[in-house]
TrEMBL record:
Any Pfam family matching the protein: HisKA_3
Protein name according to UniProt: histidine kinase
Domain spans labelled Signal transduction histidine kinase subgroup 3 dimerisation and phosphoacceptor: 194-259
InterPro entries found in the cross-reference section: HATPase_C_sf, HATPase_dom, Sensor_HK_TwoCompSys, Sig_transdc_His_kin_sub3_dim/P
Transmembrane annotation, as ranges: 12-39, 59-83, 104-123, 143-165
Keywords: ATP-binding, Kinase, Membrane, Nucleotide-binding, Phosphoprotein, Transferase, Transmembrane, Transmembrane helix, Two-component regulatory system
Domain named Histidine kinase/HSP90-like ATPase: residues: 309-396
Highest taxon of the lineage: Bacteria
Main EC class the enzyme belongs to: transferase
Length: 400
């Protein structure tokens, strides 16, 4: 119950309407006090300005200087201390310390000087009122400055309270920031641990299986009697493809094991580029596919990300052609556009989308679109204008 009330109180103080409500309330109270106990013009102006200025203390904290100054001016105009001046002055000093408009030492020193001036004005007023006022430096004259001393102590307390609240909130914010950084670090470490676990699983399962494929395919050429030359070459192609896949898996495992920001050290194997497309097409032909590579435009050296994305898109398109349109003729067209736009077009004359074996929604097309979007390009895939399946990608690689 107590915690709930504290939360509601803090929420009310933090509300945007709080300074307007308190400032308006003190202004109304000041008007009522002036009606009940009229003062001089100076006192009236000081009381009203000191109270009303509090309404802007949050949107413009330096206005608190005016609040305190007007309160001291209003107190100097009358020997009686109005309650509204006392309340607005304390809030103004608290605001100066809370928002640190000035250094607390300067704030207290300035307010103490103002209190001393008010005290001197009051001493002069007491003299004109024929009150017993001892001359300065006479016995008992120090008691005349008890007023300024008391005001300075009160001002000091209000300013220090505001500064203490400010320091506590800054400490809380720093602690929250440190906690957020610690949580982010722990999450990063957990992600790196998960990456390492994935790498171990891939190494134990996939790498082992692929290595067995390579070994068995290569050994089959020696242990299987009566193999035709074509079958022997097929086994060798399987073993070569398995070894290439192993090299790629090792590279990916190195990336997974390397913490973020240090991934470049794991790339010990060279990245495939567009210069390797001819080999990719030959591999497609070696497993029974019919493919043709057409290149237009002058070969330019593209950034590594563009070269890798174009290669992977072509590789995935050829893989899909073998999977969904076995035996179909595939044409791979590469156009190095003069307007810094790399065009990819992979088209086969198969049955088209939705008719090939195993056709369905997989991750291949999504991966190709993501690779194109990674370099600021776009990719479309679907039925070709003359049938079959068509993949088109536009990869801008420079300022157009």
């Amino acid at each position: 119950m107590r915690t709930s009330l504290q939360q509601r109180f803090r929420a009310w103080i933090a509300a945007p309407a709080y300074p307007w409500a308190t400032g308006g309330f003190l202004t109304v109270g000041a008007v009522a006090e002036l009606i009940a106990f009229p003062g001089s013009v100076t006192t009236t102006i000081g009381v009203l300005v000191s109270s009303a200025s509090l309404m802007w203390r949050r949107s413009f904290p330096p206005v608190a200087v005016l609040t305190v100054a007007a309160g001291l001016l209003g107190f100097a105009g009358d020997v009686n201390l109005y309650v509204s001046i006392m309340a607005s002055g304390l809030i103004g000093c608290y605001t100066l310390g809370r928002k640190r408009v000035l250094h607390p030492a300067l704030t207290v020193a300035g307010a103490a000087l103002g209190a001393l001036c008010v005290n001197l004005v009051h001493i002069n007023t007491w003299s004109r009122m024929n009150l017993p006022v001892p001359a300065l430096w006479e016995k008992g004259s120090l008691s005349l400055f008890a007023e300024s001393f008391l005001l300075t102590v009160v001002i000091f307390g209000a300013v220090m309270m505001g500064d203490a609240v400010r320091s506590r909130e800054e400490t809380r914010q720093e602690r929250n920031l440190a906690q957020a950084q610690l949580i982010a670090m722990e999450r990063q470490q957990a992600a790196e641990a998960e990456r390492a676990a994935i790498a171990r699983e891939l190494h134990d399962i996939v790498s082992h299986s692929v290595s067995m494929i390579a070994v068995q395919a290569e050994s089959a050429t020696y242990t299987t009697p009566g193999l035709t030359p074509e079958a022997r070459d097929g086994f060798q192609q399987i073993a070569g493809t398995a070894r290439s896949s192993m090299a790629e898996l090792r590279r990916l495992l190195g990336v997974l094991r390397t913490p973020q920001g240090q991934g470049d050290t794991a790339l010990t194997a060279p990245q495939p580029t567009l210069d390797h497309l001819a080999e990719l097409v030959e591999q497609h032909r070696a497993v029974g596919g019919e493919a043709e590579l057409r290149i237009t435009g002058e070969r330019v050296s593209l950034p590594a990300a563009w070269e890798l994305s174009a290669y992977r898109i072509t590789q995935e398109a050829l893989t899909n052609a073998r999977k969904h349109a076995p035996g179909a003729r595939t044409v791979v067209e590469i156009d190095y556009g003069a307007d810094r736009l790399l065009m990819l077009r992979i088209h086969d004359d198969g049955p088209g989308p939705g008719f090939g074996p195993g056709s369905g929604a997989g991750h291949g097309l999504t991966g190709m679109r993501e690779r194109a979007a990674l370099v600021g390009g776009r990719l479309s895939a679907g039925a070709g204008p003359d049938g079959g399946f068509l993949v088109e990608a536009e990869l801008p690689w420079g300022t157009r």
